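Thread: Newbie trying to understand structure tokens

Hi all, I'm a second-year student working on a class project, and my supervisor (Dr. K.) asked me to get a predicted structure for one chain before our next meeting. I've only ever worked with sequences, so writing a 3D structure as a token string is new to me. If someone could post the tokens and maybe explain what I'm looking at, I'd be very grateful. Here's the chain:
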Amino acid sequence: MAGKQNRTTERAAVVAGASGLVGRELIGRLARTPAYGRVIALTRRALGLQVHKLLEAPARFDALDDVLAPLLRHPTVDAYCCLGTTIRTAGSQQAFRRVDHDLVLAFARWAARVPVSRLVVVSALGADAKSRVFYNRVKGETEDDLRAVAGSSLVLLRPSLLDGPRAERRWGESLALTMTRPVRTWLPASLRPVAVEDVAQSMIDAALAESGPAVLESAALQGAARRAERSAGS
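---
Reply by user tm_fold:
Sure, no problem. This is what the structure looks like when written as tokens:
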């Protein structure tokens, strides 16, 4: 993401969806980012991570003001949302929508009340409120509702298939990753599976940039982790 990064103001990061694939990677990277003095993970169970700067807080989306107010002591707060599930894991379309729409919006409303400097949300490739595909339609409706709540503080990421070590087995994703691996370099960057490290780093870059696009498509996420490493070493 273009723009000079602010590394002088001490910030706090609040992460929703910290126990998932992107969330766990994001927690580690935030802890290593000098701009952040505190990283707060909203979680339903202990993460089991020994990470400097990390505080865990109960993921009570109906009482986020009460949960987070005592923990926020920094002048600038960024909110990161990695919430997401599958219909199979959730058990029904209604349960899926509760996580991928309702809880995401609850987090966004809390962020607007703070107010946060940036709200960075992982959406999905193909998000479209008019889609005939239920998953894409919910993601698109969530994006539209987020814009109404968060305004200019919002940055959306639309990654393609995520490549990383999931705790839960997703057979469809595993098959797709296996099939695309031999031809990955020939796939368009917009469709190529994207490493979880690149998604997490892109979220941080988006939050710390002074300006940049409101939507980051999957092609823009590719290589973000390596770029950050080169920048840190220069």
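A couple of things are worth pointing out once you decode it. Residues 1-8 have pLDDT under 50 and may be disordered. The first helix runs from residue 21 to 31. Feel free to ask follow-ups in this thread.
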